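One record is set out below.
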Amino acid sequence: MLAPSALQSILDQTIKIINEDGFDGYLPTLIYDKQVAVLEGVPAIQDTKGHSHQSIVDGWIAEISPSLPYVIIFLDSPTSARMIHVKLDGNDQWAISNVGGCISVNHL
């Protein structure tokens, strides 16, 4: 499990990137074991008809360490993103969206 301060830092960095580049330029991002990986080759916006970003990453993480907590951030739509902290005792999620030109964050 990541510390609340680490999760806040990840969220702050994500908002900074979205403020600078917009949602258009955001690529799915995985943070695990103090590493950051941009997930090239994975669709930017989650395809609800196919595999979810989380299920794709679950497979990768299982090969590294099945109990390793991670954070994945991906677009839900052209104007919103989701950050999920995956850990053994459940997931925490945040919605990041553009509301009237301002970035809004809600813990779900």
